Amino acid sequence: MATRQFNTDCEGPISKNDNAMELAASCIPDGQRFFSLVSKYDDFLADVEKKPGYKAGDTLKLILPFLRAHGMTNAEMVNYSKKNILLVRGAVETLRLISKLMPSFIVSTSYEPYLHALCGLVGFPMEQVYCTKVNIDAYPLGKGEKARLGELAPEIAGMKMISWDKEATAIEDLSPNDQGTVKRLNHIFWEEIAEMEVGRAFKEVNPVGGVEKANAVLDSLKRTGGELADVIYVGDSITDVQAFELVKDGGGVAISFNGNGYAIRSADICSISKDTVVLSLLASVFYREGRDGVLELAQKWGRSSIEGRGVEEEVKTRLQSLPNEDFPEVELIGQSNMGRLIEESEEFRKQVRGVEIGALG
Hints:
- The protein is α/β, with parallel strands linked by helices and 361 residues long.
- It has two domains: 5-16 and 87-133 and 208-358, Rossmann fold (3-Layer(aba) Sandwich); 19-81 and 134-204, AF1437-like domain superfamily (AF1437-like domain fold), CATH 1.10.3870.
- The chain has 18 helices and seven strands.
């Protein structure tokens, strides 16, 4: 049998958190709104403008100067993360079962302190985690920088949310008001903060999103000796798109779990569920039957299709014990059903993770 492996995002498939948003909300006035606006700006730079050298998930470096200016420290990041982990139902059992079957890796944009806390809780080895390394204490605030960042944070939080049509490819395709917002944010981040002492973080912190998640998959394959066709990858957002596309193009399987539109447009399979037991099943089938087995199961999805599968009885029992309203949805993604799946999955993700987190790219 091939050396098959399981690679998964953390926030979404394993936990309900958006740790970076929660950190911002914990110390920055109106921090949730502030983070949402910066995250939307991140989506624009990564997906619409395709700013050179910028990738999805770089929100995590853009907010660092503001976290630092509002008193966040390494110790605070660790303590807050430990106290505020919210796991998706079944996540511990899923990670434990899949890790027994095949090499398993977490590939997360989240900050390292959060992953340390989560791995300690669920018993997953940190050496099999790819995440965003950060040492916030290393960034000094120059004279006046704390005060200036304190002025800029409420300005950003007070901006109207940016929006664009799906055909947009440049700033000129935005409304005049949104163009003004993006230009103002460009000035704040790339002219003003980038020149601050604390702005060193923009050069030194490399969030694991976009191409870095794809690179993490490739690095994990060096460790296992496998090929892309041996990978099942689970994700839920814009930061997973390039990993999804890499795995799909290489003959592996890409699964959107309670994903947003970015994820569903890039994945093979859409799964919508309150419980990760469905990932246990899909991964177990992939381990035994490869890509074809998983796609065939998704095509014939239902309670009857689970019976007769050569997978762990505990998985089948848990799935079959779920009431109909909680039974997971699994569906192959195609052009004909993509719009419906995006609508259903995005609505469900808001129910599971909250409206604010669920609305993030």
